[in-house]
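Q: What does the assembled structure look like for these inputs?
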Amino acid sequence: MIAEIGLAALWLAAALAALQLFAGFAGARVADGNTAIAALVRPAAVMQAVLCAVAFLSLLYVFAITDLSVKLVAVNSHSMKPLIFKLSGAWGNHEGSMLLWITVMALAGGLIALIERRLPERTMMATLCAQAFVALGFYAFLLLSSNPFERLREVPAEGNGLNPLLQDVGLAFHPPTLYIGYVGLSVAFSFAVAALLTRNVTPDFARVMRPWVLGAWIFLTIGITAGSYWAYYELGWGGWWFWDPVENASLMPWLAATALLHSVSVLAARDALRTWTIMLGVVAFSMSMVGTFLVRSGILTSVHAFAVDPERGSFILALLALYIGGALVIFALRANTIAEGERFNLVSREGALVVNNVALTSILGVVLLGTLYPLLTEAFDVRVSVGPPYFNPVSAIFFLPMMVVLMVGPLLRWRRDEFSRIIKPVALVAAIAFTVLIRVAIWNDIGILPMFGLAIAAGLAIASFAPLLKRALRRTPLAVWGMCIAHFGVAVALFGMAADTAFQQERLVATSVGDVVEVGPWTGRLDSVNAVAGPNWTAMQANMMVSYKGGPEREAHPQSRNFWTPQMETSEVALLTRWNGQLYVAVGNQAEDGRWQMRLWWKPFVTFIWYGGLLIALGGALALIGRVLGDLRRRRNEGEAEDEAGHDFEEVPA
Amino acid sequence: MNTGFKPKHQRLVLLLVAVAAMIGATLLAIYALRDQASYFYVPADIAANPPETGQAIRLGGMVETGSLATQADGVTIEFIVHDGEARVPVTFTGIRPALFVEGSGVVADGRMNADGVFVADNLLAKHDENYMPRELEGMTSDQIREEVQETVE
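A:
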């Protein structure tokens, strides 16, 4: 019964999306956006959000009670699973994840309809019309080819269970945050298309678009950071980024969103980069869809590829072509009607942000090409795989110069500036970076990329707070704090990546009980190996005592787990965290002679990678709060005293 | 300050900079891809057209039954990968994936050494047993190739 309610809610929501499409279109055609039928647009968007929420809750419910008559539950769940994995398992599969996608999209649409009042009504109608158009495609996809509520004629006695790699709290956080980010970019896309259609590319428009971009970007950042940490401890390979197609699929929208975030700030503050910002709005969501296509169609190798189903792949490909192609056609037709924005000097904040945008877009291109290359060559029957030897150096060629500009850019004034004005802080930062570079180049035998990474991280860590110099800290806008913290987060993450790459130490041994193993500053002793059991697995657990530089002993219990539904072996690593890094211990198979394979890594400062990611997201959150509060204040001022001189709010990039 | 371009042409200059950067990135990417992409080989390809020593490649095939042996250090394994036409000896140091067993399909990242042995950095076996290729008994080499390709996909 609940499943049927969910399905009915989805169909109703799709019908409302169709209504929203036509009513929005009618509204966007009249000058002031006010017609009788256009009055239906906002209620339709809000009701859609409610209905999708109902559908999603229904799915959660059938998973919670393990209703095995629902096909999706029978295929992907199991009554013996802990409740949290039953619930998160609802989106750990193709159909459920697409329902999550559409639900987030409907909620975002409902939210704009409910709270966004700053735009001209006509642009608003066009935005909601575009949003409905995008949503309709995904409703069709969900209802016609991936119905999550499909019933089974014969109810099985037990479900198939969830892929053990996914039975982790990571699944509860990683996909929802990432999806909020992906789909949040659909709002930016709709805004961009609406602005093109109604020829309304103004700083006011950018100020409306910015919080949405910022919000989506924050969630993307958290989602990628969480996913990286999850892969790090779950896969047992000791790596935090594999350049796996699916990781790239999440990185590409992030790169585009980061570029968009900066260019929309230029548009808001200085009325420049108009066309470029619109273009990025289209590109960012296109990258989300490309990512979804790559992941969901299963055409690339990955643990994320739930189902290899050519029909679904071609469906998403058709949607992709329709939306990206459609948006690009509109862009081509309308881009020349957007007047050129304000001019600026090369040495200026805008100039630095242009470098940021060009570099980010270039990295995006490099990653996109590397990800698609195996598909291209396969058309000629040549099989290749592309990995770190390509991605690391080629993206670094653009990334490192961008970091250098990042140290200087935030110090520059808008419109025009002179280097001589900021020579002191720049010289200081350059001296720090250079000292670190010389230091590691002479004393440490490390690769060229981590060497530059360490130097730039050191310089950037200082430079990121330089914009606060000579400011009254109490009166500094939250958005400026957000910018500084986010840039500092980049330095922290870069430091973690470089330090781990340069200084990590690894030991691979076969040990007997009682043996002592050393890795870097750590000494470990294997005390015993015994069998343990969980709710749906059994494991061999190695019990080790380890100590850092002869200090107090700590326990480590890595496991090699055997799940029985579905049958699968996973490695449960032991992580011992210190402020300056992590000891990573994995246990493998038992050799014929009774010894146990163990793999230990000492990873100095590896945790900084994820602290950095969280700092970047925190900076974004502060900027978002600052922006929203600023807007509220501005609106209140305008409401109270229309005739008073408008308060001049400082504009800084988020 | 004169920054080298007239304000009148700013939009054009910005456009050119962006286009130049994108073309540069694309050319660089294509150049690097030709060099850095690792090509997929089955043992028959290696026999017919051996890759350069040290060149990163991917090797796919079936693990020959009875060929798997562990060295004295307890963490290095040796085995033979075949595709019904040719055989390639492989060594791997590390914790082998759970689904890696004799008679199953495997894909290995690594390179050929001077002795004609494939040194694997990484063994990929499908995470889910449902995706594993079936036993190879009685299969033609073409069928095995198909199975190997399934393992890769």
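The interface with chain A takes residues 1, 3-5, 7, 10-11, 14, 17-18, 21-22, 24-26, 28-30, 32-33, 36-40, 56, 58, 70, 73-75, 93-96, 98-99, 109, 127-130, 149, 152-153 of chain B (CB under 8 Å).
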